[in-house]
Write a sequence for this structure.
């Protein structure tokens, strides 16, 4: 029989365009700030979409031991974001991991067993650093200014650093995080686009529940701030290319006049822990994870299901896993990517399961403020949901004033509202590829 | 009642062919699927050969259904073909009794091959000035060229979760759908995690395994820059030499391997043929270094031990180890050390082998292909060889079943996969116990 241990959330670490760390992020949500602006990392004027959600500046050395700094050269941006989130999550949970001890911020020994410390991290298709790759490829031009594969094979490729590939393997987020914090137990990397974080958190929840680990660091991270990562969704017609002059208004989840998504970067890693382990070390408990569900749309591999069927199944599975019904949910956290068809499919899924209950429960979406953070989106949303529950507060959701007529979500537009939140649900889904997942949390009670 | 997970169907697309029995006979005969690279002109590359999938067309497997998957990338096509084979092998083609919400997908699917030609052309457009001189990348010029050159479907197909989406559509599999990409360990991890999904009760059937193709200019570039590949361009057919002292790196392969995993009672209710039971899974991180395996095989030992614990077995129960056995200096040495440390005296009594000697390294798909050979080894009582073995290495002194397949009773098999960055996954399967 599979043992089902109780699992709680004891730490939150996020890096978002609104701020790095759960407090700055939450404060900015409450203050209705926007993290979307004109792209600063490179000159975007050749692109149709020239706005994005970029992280505020940070210094990696604030998040790793001194001995690890040399490894920064094999980190893509996605990896750095994960490493930042990991530090923040571990600190927030008051875990004295190898990293924290080596940084002199806690005295050893570690207050957890590395062999019972796992990682489930969602990652995206990590985009090669375009400056590095294009610069190297261009050295293989022939006399007619065409690319010569023969020249590339013979000498051009030597312009890439020997460890080049290791920057872009999706599992490197988890590898760096597990090395820095010495997490030796079950380790997995989920690559399911915007559904990745939910699937990773759900898998970590199951891992602890069945007693294969005591603590898991889980969530996801991704950066789409790269010309290559922007041009892809631009070619698919998913990006808002109409509102480059009004970036803070450009991401309008479920909006009547939504024009597509805004690319972004960011991530979140959270600490899940068995209730026993959390009690033994006297950890602060944010919430209990009580439900996880997944499902797939089977109508199309490239488009959202017209009725949101994979997502509605994921929601129903998560509620059933929690032993709850939609009547017992006090806060819903839809994804809200902002394209016409994805939002329509998502609304169909929620409407099918929740019906008129959606009129009564508060809803929150972070997309309007931070854009689409790819594989990192779900963990950021999860952290926002946990914080809303912790504070009994429904925060405002930016750019939700003028909603689609079929949208029943009860978003807060102005000041945050005090609300009794004992049980909440958040979802994530891949924009293409059919993956959907949902997570239910509950206020912790003995 | 305790749930158990069994394999009821298998299919693959490999460098030695696409039929389970034909490929298996090729392996037992020690054939090589390695040849000069044809997917692109690799003649000037440090490694100009690979284990490519040959004579493949999706229509051959999917018939008219292939239309539903127009635009699918090479690795997604492999996955579809292998999955259709596995589905039929499991007796599901005509079966109407499935609850689609209880059928899921968990793949170790690699990223789709990058569209290299437009990518290179856009790079030149962004980096060369009017006189053809190299300049720092002009992102404006690059973006204008890329918007003109890139094909949106091709870009979409690079996402590693796409193969899983195609399988969901093809088989109406509405249950949990996941993709893991833990480098070379991905499909072993996928099968282990899919087993857990069924054990936990989140599904009754999972289509699992892996698919990958990195035989494209950037894939080979990445591995060549890491100096991970064999460069025996003149001896390509014998270049993959796991556990041999003359080994000089792995040979990139491609393909897909898919299994149908099923809860035991579910399989019995529909009278499915049960091929083997998945009894143990272990997953660990070295948590050591990005570039090196832990010198003492800490993570590998822990993964094998975790799988044994999960199965309630000891090393005395293991009849055969299907190794990761890549043919790199470091992997084979440390895998040998790890097996020695864990198995003690028994290490010399357990045959170990690496089919990578014949089909190369299918990267994310490798572990699933190896697991299929483990099932066949149990069924037929024969262990596939490690070919190209000629020079013993004192650091790799296990019984690696050199060059010739070996008949012996095989009931319980341990299969290892290790990924870059220190990802370790081990599966244990066995013939279904008669007592139950």
């Amino acid at each position: 029989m599979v043992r089902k241990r109780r699992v709680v959330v004891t730490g939150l670490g996020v890096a978002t365009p609104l701020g790095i760390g759960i407090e700055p992020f939450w404060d900015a949500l409450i203050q209705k700030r926007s993290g979307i602006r004109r792209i600063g990392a490179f000159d975007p004027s050749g692109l149709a979409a020239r706005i994005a959600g970029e992280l505020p500046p940070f210094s990696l050395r604030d998040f790793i031991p001194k001995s690890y700094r040399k490894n920064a050269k094999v980190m893509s941006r996605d990896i750095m974001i994960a490493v930042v989130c990991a530090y923040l999550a571990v600190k927030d949970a008051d875990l004295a991991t190898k990293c924290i001890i080596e940084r002199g911020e806690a005295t050893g020994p570690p207050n957890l067993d590395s062999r019972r410390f796992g990682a489930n991290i969602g990652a995206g298709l990590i985009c090669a650093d375009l400056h590095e790759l294009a610069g190297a490829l261009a050295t293989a031009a022939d006399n007619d200014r065409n690319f010569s594969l023969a020249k590339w094979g013979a000498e051009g490729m030597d312009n890439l650093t020997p460890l080049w590939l290791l920057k872009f393997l999706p599992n490197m987020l988890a590898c760096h995080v597990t090395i820095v914090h010495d997490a030796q137990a079950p380790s997995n990397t989920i690559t399911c686009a915007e559904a990745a974080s939910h699937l990773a958190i759900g898998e970590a929840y199951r891992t602890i529940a069945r007693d294969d680990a005591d603590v898991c660091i889980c969530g996801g991270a991704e950066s789409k701030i790269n010309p290559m990562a922007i041009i892809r969704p631009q070619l698919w017609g998913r990006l808002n290319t109409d509102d480059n002059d009004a970036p803070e208004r450009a991401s309008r989840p479920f909006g009547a006049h939504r024009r597509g998504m805004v690319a972004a970067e960011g991530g979140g890693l959270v600490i899940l822990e068995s209730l026993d382990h959390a009690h033994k070390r006297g950890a602060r408990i944010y919430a209990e994870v009580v439900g996880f569900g997944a499902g797939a749309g089977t109508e199309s591999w490239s488009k959202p299901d017209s009725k949101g069927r994979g997502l509605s199944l994921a929601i129903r599975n998560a509620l059933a896993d929690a032993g709850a019904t939609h009547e017992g949910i006090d806060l819903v956290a839809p994804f809200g990517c902002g394209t016409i068809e994805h939002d329509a499919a998502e609304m169909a899924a929620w409407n099918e399961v929740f019906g008129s209950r959606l009129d009564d429960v508060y809803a929150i979406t972070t997309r309007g403020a931070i854009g689409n953070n790819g594989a990192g989106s779900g963990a950021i949303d999860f952290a926002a949901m946990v914080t809303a529950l912790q504070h009994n507060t429904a925060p405002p959701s930016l750019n939700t004033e003028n909603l689609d007529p079929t949208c029943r979500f009860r978003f807060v537009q102005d000041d945050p509202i005090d609300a009794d939140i004992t049980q909440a649900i958040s979802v994530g889904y891949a924009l293409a590829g059919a993956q959907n997942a949902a997570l239910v949390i509950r206020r912790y009670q003995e | 009642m305790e749930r158990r997970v069994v394999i009821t169907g298998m299919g693959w697309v490999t460098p030695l062919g696409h039929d389970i029995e034909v490929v298996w006979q090729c392996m037992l005969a020690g054939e090589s699927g390695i040849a000069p690279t044809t997917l692109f002109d690799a003649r000037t590359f440090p490694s100009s050969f690979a284990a490519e999938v040959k004579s493949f067309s999706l229509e051959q497997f999917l018939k008219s259904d292939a239309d539903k998957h127009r635009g699918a990338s090479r690795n997604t096509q492999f996955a579809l073909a292998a999955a259709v084979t596995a589905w039929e092998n499991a007796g599901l083609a005509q079966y109407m009794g499935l609850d689609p919400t209880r059928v899921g997908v968990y793949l170790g699917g690699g990223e789709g091959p990058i569209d290299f030609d437009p990518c290179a052309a856009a790079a030149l457009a962004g980096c060369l000035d009017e006189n053809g001189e190299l300049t720092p990348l002009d992102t404006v010029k690059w973006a204008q060229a890329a918007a003109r050159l890139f094909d949106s479907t091709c870009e979409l197909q690079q996402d590693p979760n796409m193969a899983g989406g195609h399988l969901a559509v093809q088989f109406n599999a509405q249950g949990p759908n996941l993709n893991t990409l833990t480098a070379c360990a991905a499909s072993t991890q996928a099968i282990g995690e899919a087993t857990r999904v069924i054990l936990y009760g989140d599904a009754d059937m999972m289509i699992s395994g892996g698919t990958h193709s990195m035989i494209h200019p950037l894939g080979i570039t990445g591995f060549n820059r890491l100096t991970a590949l064999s460069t025996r361009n003149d001896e390509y057919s014998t270049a993959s030499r796991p556990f041999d002292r003359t080994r000089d790196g792995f040979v990139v392969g491609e393909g897909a391997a898919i299994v149908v995993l099923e809860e035991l009672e579910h399989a019995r209710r529909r009278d499915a043929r049960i091929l083997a039971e998945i009894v143990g899974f272990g997953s660990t991180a070295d948590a050591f270094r990005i570039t090196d395996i832990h010198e003492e095989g800490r993570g590998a030992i822990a993964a094998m031990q975790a799988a044994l614990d999960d199965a309630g077995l000891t090393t005395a129960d293991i009849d055969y180890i299907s190794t990761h056995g890549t043919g790199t200096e470091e992997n084979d040495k440390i895998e040998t050390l790890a097996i020695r440390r864990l198995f003690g005296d028994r290490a010399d009594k357990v045959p170990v082998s690496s089919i990578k000697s014949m089909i190369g390294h299918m990267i994310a798909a490798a572990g699933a292909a190896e697991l299929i050979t483990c099932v066949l080894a149990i069924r037929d009582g024969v262990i596939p060889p490690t070919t190209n073995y000629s020079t013993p290495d004192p650091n790799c002194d296990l019984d690696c079943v050199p060059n010739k397949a070996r008949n012996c009773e095989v009931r319980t098999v341990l299969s290892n996969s290790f990924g870059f960055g220190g990802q370790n996954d081990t599966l244990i399967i066995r013939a279904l116990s008669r007592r139950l």
